Amino acid sequence: MRHLMSPLDFTTQELDKLFDLAGDIERNPGKYAHACDGKILATCFYEPSTRTRLSFESAMTRLGGRVIGFSDANSSSAAKGESVSDTIRVISCYADICAMRHPKEGAPMVAAERSGIPVINAGDGGHQHPTQTLTDLLTIRSLKGSLGGFTIGLCGDLKFGRTVHSLIHALIRYDNIRYLFISPEELRVPDYITDMLRGRGIPFREVIRLEDVMPDLDLLYMTRVQKERFFNEEDYVRLKDFYILDAQKLARAKDDMLILHPLPRVNEISVEVDDDPRAAYFKQAQYGVYVRMALILTLLELA
Ligand code: CP
């Protein structure tokens, strides 16, 4: 039995296979419409979500399976003090696979250790968000043609943004990628990530002004300032609008630069950018369904 805790749980060869499957699902949805007949997905979300929970539910439904779960810890027995370990042991009696989001880092891993079914980390605190990373990689591979040979700018809250941490971990296995980390001083990418890049001899630069590096970028990965991870409101208010991508800033970008964002967005991308052909963030959300369909099939050994 396999779980997914980190994007590194799959080799790059396994990821290629997963993305090929996601591509086939996109082109031939009817072929997979009954692939999960009789199977049940449990979505156990102890933290708010729109995309991850609903794309998992859409994925399982499109595969012919069914979905059970909760979207709020307060409507589960966690509110009465039940541990994640006990909860997953019980869910294992009710479902065939579980997607879990939790505010505590490592909670899905604790669940996986006690689980009788595959557990998918759907985001744990500020740590990892591997299925968002699978979504991001599939989007880049599909729209750029390959997972390597580009300059990527990651912009915004690089300290608390778990999607950024997961994506960097996944991308370091691909060749010839240059990283530009664009953030205010207070929201710099954690040292353990820059230490890891230095240790591997992978080039990166840290800058504060997005405008200064815009012409260099092949991919711009925007992120929201993670309000829920701040210790005080004052700091959040001071930093939340540090970056606002608008048409004026984009004027200096390459014509084929891709703009990605895991969403939800707050103010960091102006709505006027949505109609720019380089804006790929809603398409990215669509890829999230295909890749989660492929992941469910893979972990249930139905692919
Ligand atoms: N990208 C993402 O994780 O969105 P949700 O928080 O809405 O699931």
Secondary structure blueprint with pairings:
Blueprint: H1 12-27, E1 40-45, H2 51-62, E2 66-70, H3 84-94, E3 97-102, H4 107-114, E4 119-124, H5 130-144, E5 150-155, H6 162-171, E6 177-182, H7 191-200, E7 204-207, H8 210-213, E8 219-222, H9 233-239, H10 247-250, E9 258-260, H11 281-299
Parallel strand pairs: 1-2, 1-3, 3-4, 5-6, 5-8, 6-7, 8-9
Number of helices: 11
Query: What is the CA-atom radius of gyration, in angstroms?
Result: 19 Å
Tally of extended strands?
Answer: 9
CATH architecture of the largest domain: 3-Layer(aba) Sandwich
Element string (H = helix, E = strand): HEHEHEHEHEHEHEHEHHEH
Q: Which stretches are poorly predicted, pLDDT < 50 over at least 5 residues?
A: none
Shape: globular
Q: Major sheet: size, sense and barrel closure?
A: 5 strands, parallel
Q: What would the CATH topology of the largest domain be? A: Rossmann fold
If you average the pLDDT, what whole number results? 95
What is bound: which ligands?
Answer: phosphoric acid mono(formamide)ester
Distance between the termini: 14 Å
Structural class: alpha/beta
Strand content: 15-25%
The CATH class label of the largest domain is Alpha Beta
- What is the total domain count? 2
CATH superfamily descriptor of the largest domain: Aspartate/ornithine carbamoyltransferase
Helix content: 25-40%
Main sheet strand line-up: 7-6-5-8-9
